[in-house]
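Quick question about two entries, pasted in order.
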Amino acid sequence: MAEAGVRLEDSWKAVLGDEFAQPYMRHLKVFLQAEKAAGKQIFPKGAEYFRALDLTPLDEVRVVILGQDPYHGAGQAHGLCFSVRPGVRIPPSLVNIYKELQSDLGIAPARHGSLEHWAQQGVLLLNSVLTVEEARAASHQGQGWERFTDAVIRAVNEDCEHVVFMLWGSYAQKKAAFVDGSRHLVLKAPHPSPLSAHNGFFGCRHFSQANEYLLSKGRNAIDWQLPSEA
């Protein structure tokens, strides 16, 4: 973790900087240092813990997509939920996201899994927990990250206007339950995992609904078409 949050993007640092002085964040830092000292492989790398915030400044947020944990396979996680590095096999949930995107907007699935193009347009791709131990899903839950990312969501809810929250699955829906639905658009669907996508994620049309809402509020739509090469 960056010392006292010094690497946090400026607009986020302005609203989240005080979090780093809180006991829970000090505990989290000690926990991560101990895990690394024990020789455990932690994903993503330290410089990418706050990648979602780096690529999507607070005043540019138009859409929020919530994930749960980073991918725990080697070379996958790079700080954006559902996204993987170029050249890495596209995970099943992202395959299903691409399928829904094609059904909704006619956009052919990308041949890579990097969603940085979305993040650079104001799509905050936020995991609830920002680190994980290799090959151990959910291994860093309950260590403090959830409180920090609650503060991120709270900042968007309170400081931004007309943001689309795409809440896929019960975990995301519970985490963002406090979002003001009169001020923002809250879209809910099952998680895109192969275990649940057929229960209502397919056909949810969140991508087109997001753009229709943004345009209706005088904001720019998202170009969901990913570049052919990441």
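Here is the second entry:
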Amino acid sequence: MPASVERQVVDVEGHRLSLSHLDRLLYPATGHTKAQVLQYYARIAPAMLPHTAGRPASFVRAPEGPGGESWVAKNPPPGAPGWVPRVPVRHREGTTEQVVVDSTAVLVAMVNLGAYEVHVPQWTAAAGPDAHDRLVLDLDPGPGADLVVCCRVAQRLRQLLDDDGLTAHAVVSGSKGLHLYAPVHPASGRAVSGYAKELAARMMGEHPGLVVVSMARVERRGKVLIDWSQNASAKTTAAPYTVRLRERPDVAAPVTWDEVVACRDPDELVFGPEDVLDRVDTYGDLLAPLAADATRARLP
């Protein structure tokens, strides 16, 4: 995928793709072009796909990059190839056909159509929304707080989860905060959400000056919001390894607990595409246990 041409026809896993607007500057702050973002996704796919495969994806689309118009899309982007797998998903507003990102070819095809940010639910299409197989907590710092404070909160949440027999894995969100995942034995969205809400309330009871569970912005100053609601069957979370549509192409990247404990500066845990590729070359997929059936524990 040369970065010096405007259009290139490539073969990805036996599928012919015409990659367009390769010279488009998506991230002026860092100089990243569309070609470079496509190259990142093509290379990161082996690590990313275990966390998206089988799950109905939604996308944040922004064909001209974060500086242009963006929107959340559940339906396949116009121009999506016919071979891209789709599954029906029932929503309040009706049933939609959603893409399943289960191969490098699908991932590259979606990114080529401006679907740069991938989001998935905590359940697979095969099992359905009544069988969530992972729990997620989104730690979002309010004004006056930052990723360092999120890391402090995450350490205590890790202990609480461990006390309940669940193993937490940390992923910097690529935005301002931190995602904590735990693999769970399949349970209903209501059960997982209920447990996550109770866990967040426990944490707020312990540290009322540090943690909040209310979305109200006025209550969040200097505190970390523990957003437990992303465990609802209708909600999605930015997929591990996705590039975020912000000023910089920061990535939702798995991190070690040693890194979380040692964090003293938010910039220490900010990773661009090239950083993440280097990390995967060095460490492999730090989040691999999340996709392993053997690691799933029942909710208490």
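Reply: The first helix runs from residue 34 to 48. Helices lie at 34-48, 104-112, 147-163, 189-206, 257-262, 273-283. Hope that helps.
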